[in-house]
Amino acid sequence: MASYDISPAMRFLITVAVMAATLMQVLDTTIVNVALTHMQGSLNATSDEISWVLTSYLVSSAIFMPLTGYFTDRMGQKNYLLLSIFGFIIASALCGVAQNLPQIVIFRLLQGVFGAALVPLSQAILTEVYPPEDRGKAMAIWGIGVMLGPILGPSLGGYLTDVANWRWTFYINVPFGIASLLLALAVVPDTIKKARQMDWLGLILISIAIGSTQYFLDRGNQEDWFNSINIKIAVMLSILSLVGFLIYNMKPRRRMIFDLAIFKDRNFTIASLLLGVFGLAMFGAMVIFPIMMENLLNYPVLTTGLAMAPRGISGMVGMILVGKMIKKVDPRYLVAIGMVLSSGGTWIMTQYSTQISLWWILWPQLIQGFGFGLIFVPLSAIAFTTLPKHLKAEAAGLFSLLRTIGSSVGISVVITIFTQETQIVWSQLSGFIQPYHSAVNAYLSPLHLTVNKPVGALILEKTISIQAQMIAVNDALVFVAWSLMVMLPLVFLLKKPVVSNDVPVVAE
């Protein structure tokens, strides 16, 4: 159905339907963040193991996102959308009833399988139902929906965990998903089905590459990196599978997971790379915040969730502003300004200590979030400007894939930096604990304690542990800030979009 055949009222209902499904999916990437400490105790998991609740979802999503084009062709976009929503509802209910860590990891993998297509499908559908002159507005709406999940996720997760328990962070998807399913069934247009065969070898190779990379990132620190045979095998499998996939797909064939010709488009390739770094920065910063607030600053889970909302609110403001400016201002400048602001807001956070007030936690997030809002929409618009129409469904899946991979890598790398730096700094600080050290005695004397007394030694150990973790948080945020600035020059390798008769084209 062409965009000009759709009435404004029907276009509005289609937008609500697909964005409701998108919001449900992206909400689940962050809603469990603030509940992890509660889940850890309930499921008898370590801090390293519980991170699999986040990354298992992202890994399975990353593996199945490139298949969006294939299943859309075989089933039609409406049927595939309905199947994805229905499967996501069932998987969410199963996550809620999980009794141990292996169960919830398996059900989260299933959630990722069905949720993988929801974001790229919504992007492709909105691109189709809006006329060319309103594509910028459509991408702004889509971007707000994608960003709204990280906004609402921690706050909603904190509230549900506080008033009920962590299981409701999954149960909430059931009524919300049913409403989305019924609306999509009524209004979303379908596409013509096409005969297409599955590239099983390509699927196996890309799945092994993504899964092995994630295993290496998640388990590397716990298994002492390259001193572990498992890590060596994972890295080898990842490299061989990726190289094999690229060689295997050099020549176009009828059976392909996705067409590598998509990456010949400079705008799409660079924008996808930048979006991966965007995901790394946003989710990397997001996963470290609950650790800091709940474990080090002793804030309750609900306060933690609410304290993470300003980033998302300012991000929404940034995206609304971009939606109005994108036709008047070079999108590359908007992306560059966004990266500088996001990096600057993150850098302010690297100065945190255990004595900071709640206000100092909130206002740097406003800067960081506003910057994120300036990045996402222009990148999404630039990425698809020069792609042929027949590649856009596959490109939407790949675009979301790279964002998901960036998010997953960000979570793993930030947790690894935090864990390693905590150990290093703890060793350094403990070296200053001496019976005759004046600072140590000055710290304990108001409590009428000394280093030689068991209670004094226990207090010092607790203090050192908290300070080491706080410094480790700062070091992880330094990595996030620099990851954005290092990628900044790539923005100006993008082709400059120009506007001709309200239809975006690209100047050479």
**Number of separate helices:** 21
Total number of strands: 2
Let me know the average pLDDT: 83
Work out the helicity level: over 70%
Provide the gyration radius in Å: 24 Å
Order of helices and strands: HHHHHHHHHHHHHHHHHHHHHEE
Oligomer kind: single chain
Major beta sheet, specifics?
2 strands, antiparallel
Main-sheet strand order equals 1-2
Distance from first to last alpha carbon: 32 Å
Low-confidence stretches: 499-508
**Form type:** globular
Strand pairing plus helix content: what structural class?
Answer: mainly alpha
Provide the β-strand percentage band.
under 5%
Report on this model:
The chain is mainly alpha-helical and 508 residues long. Helix content is 73%, strand content 2%. It has 21 helices and two strands. A two-stranded antiparallel ribbon has the order 1-2. A hairpin with a 2-residue loop joins strand 1 and strand 2 (503-506). The longest helix is centred in the C-terminal third of the chain and has 39 residues, at 392-430.
